[in-house]
Write a structure and sequence with these properties.
CATH architecture of the largest domain: 3-Layer(aba) Sandwich
CATH class of the largest domain: Alpha Beta
Number of helices: 15
Shape: globular
Radius of gyration: 23 Å
Oligomer: single chain
Strand order of the largest sheet: 14-17-18-13-12-19-20
Number of domains: 2
Largest sheet: 7 strands, mixed
Strand content: 15-25%
Structural class: alpha/beta
Number of strands: 22
């Protein structure tokens, strides 16, 4: 554990294993209630120093972090692959994105400012002068998932530090080693003791201790809707930002470039074994091109290489654990029992599921209406663009949606009518870069990430008025 700049052992430990071959990686301490209390005290003491730290110093720390990650990117990428099972090429891509995320934070830390208020707009304040300024809110509790163990941590830690807050990080127990590495890097980069604390344990213990603490100002959580709802119920008056699940969809219009749509849909559906909150799960294809798209898509999917994630040509490896693969397999069998067809895949060996494409699905099947979080995608035929929009919106989720079309009018109609946090034209909903506003509606969460937008969540405005 990292508490007040020191690495602390624990009385109890848990093993971290490679999900691909089950090999032992390391042992990590379970945090006790006292450990968490010490982390909170450490973060509280560090907050005053962080809040008073000038922007250029915060920027330098974040920039240094970015540079150190870049200098060790191969080592970190291999660590991500070993503890998460992510294909090495995608681990490398995650590290590259994290380099950018910390650099964006370094830049944004210098752009935090307020504005003047035209007080003479009111006859009652003609002789007054006023402006407002954002201030850091305090201790940020960051609770992160296994699927992006570096970059999703970066999306919470980097804006918190950029805006002058302190942080307590609780990473997923599947992938704690990447967070430990990041803690080492940020200390080397010049972060003051206590500004970042790292604790380990389950959400029902360590997570709840953080959520229920009156000393924390905000909880930033990425994970399942059920846990997100529970956090919101227990958080009291503190701020809560939730990045939750989805069953993301793409619409493919008759004028779409199928040669573009096919590989992008494959990436969107199967990267990281579908364990991405904006993984493509529903593809709505116009009836005029349905057969053509289906043929090209299935042919390409069957060529995918699945297996050892350390091999450079592997597209994806194992799911995080076998029980999740068993769950997904059960959903596939349930859909088939209700009339769905498997076009390819659907086989499970341990915690690896072959890339699965299904059709003839119904809206109430789990593979359609729930978040499958597995290497599975459904193909659904439609007649009219408005019908496709309605089918995409027929979901309890809404992070992002994609539309493949050359028709600018349809692009803007989709932008206006799709009830999601982001609309991606001529690409899949899985697309994300790290300075754009990112987040969902409905059961997909509240608040926005992306450094500039997360900083707004992690600061509060204060007004000063002069009576001249």
């Amino acid at each position: 554990m990292l508490i007040n700049g020191e690495w602390r052992a624990g009385k109890e430990y848990f093993d971290v294993k490679n999900p691909y071959d089950g090999s032992f990686l390391d042992r990590v301490p379970l945090s006790s209630k006292k450990d968490v209390e010490d982390a909170i005290l450490s973060a509280k003491n560090a907050f005053s120093a962080m809040a008073e730290m000038p922007a250029h110093r915060r920027s330098t720390i974040l920039s240094n972090t970015s540079k150190i990650i870049e200098s060790t990117k191969r080592e970190i990428s291999e660590l991500i692959t070993k503890e998460s099972g992510k294909a090495i090429k995608y681990s490398l891509a995650e590290v590259e994105r994290s380099i950018q995320t910390f650099q964006f934070a370094a830049e944004e830390s210098k752009q935090i400012h307020g504005e003047t208020i035209p007080m003479d707009a009111s006859p009652n304040s003609e002789k007054r002068f006023a402006f407002y300024q954002p201030f850091p809110i305090g201790i940020i509790g960051a609770i992160t998932p296994f699927n992006f163990p570096l970059n999703l941590v970066a999306h919470k830690v980097a804006p918190a530090i950029a805006s002058g807050n302190s942080v307590i990080l609780k990473p997923a127990s599947y992938t704690p080693l990447t967070s430990i590495k990041l803690g080492e890097i940020m200390m080397e980069a010049g972060l003051p003791n206590g500004a970042l604390n790292i604790v380990f344990g389950s959400g029902s213990t360590v997570g709840d201790w953080l959520v229920e603490s009156q000393d924390l100002a905000m909880i930033s959580f990425t994970g399942s809707p059920s846990v997100g709802r529970r956090i919101k119920e227990r958080a009291g008056m503190k701020r809560v930002a939730l990045e939750l699940g989805s069953n993301s969809a793409a619409i493919i219009e008759p004028d779409a470039d199928i040669n573009l749509a096919t590989p992008r849909c494959i990436m969107g559906a199967f990267s990281n074994a579908g364990q991405v909150c904006i993984s493509l799960q529903r593809i709505y294809v116009h009836e005029k091109i349905f057969d053509e798209f289906k043929e090209k898509f299935i042919k390409a999917v069957r060529k995918m290489k699945v297996g050892n994630p350390m091999k450079p040509d592997t597209e994806y490896g194992p799911m995080i654990e076998e029980k999740e693969a068993v769950r997904a397999e059960g959903w596939i069998k349930e859909a088939v029992h209700k009339g769905a067809k498997i076009l390819c895949g659907g086989e499970r060996k341990g915690n690896i599921i072959t890339p699965t494409v299904m059709t003839d699905v119904k809206r109430d099947m789990k593979v359609v209406c729930n978040e499958v979080f597995a290497p599975l995608v459904t193909l659904i035929k439609y007649k009219d663009f408005e019908d496709a929009i309605d089918m995409v919106n027929d979901s309890i989720y809404g992070i992002q949606a994609g539309i493949f079309t050359k028709d600018i009018d349809k692009a803007f109609r989709g932008f206006k009518k799709l009830h999601v946090g982001g609309v991606i034209i001529n690409d899949v909903p899985t697309f994300r870069v790290d300075h754009m506003p990112y987040g969902g509606v409905k059961e997909s969460g509240t608040g926005r990430e992306g450094i500039k937008f997360a900083i707004k969540e992690m600061t509060e405005l204060k007004l000063i008025v002069f009576n001249l």
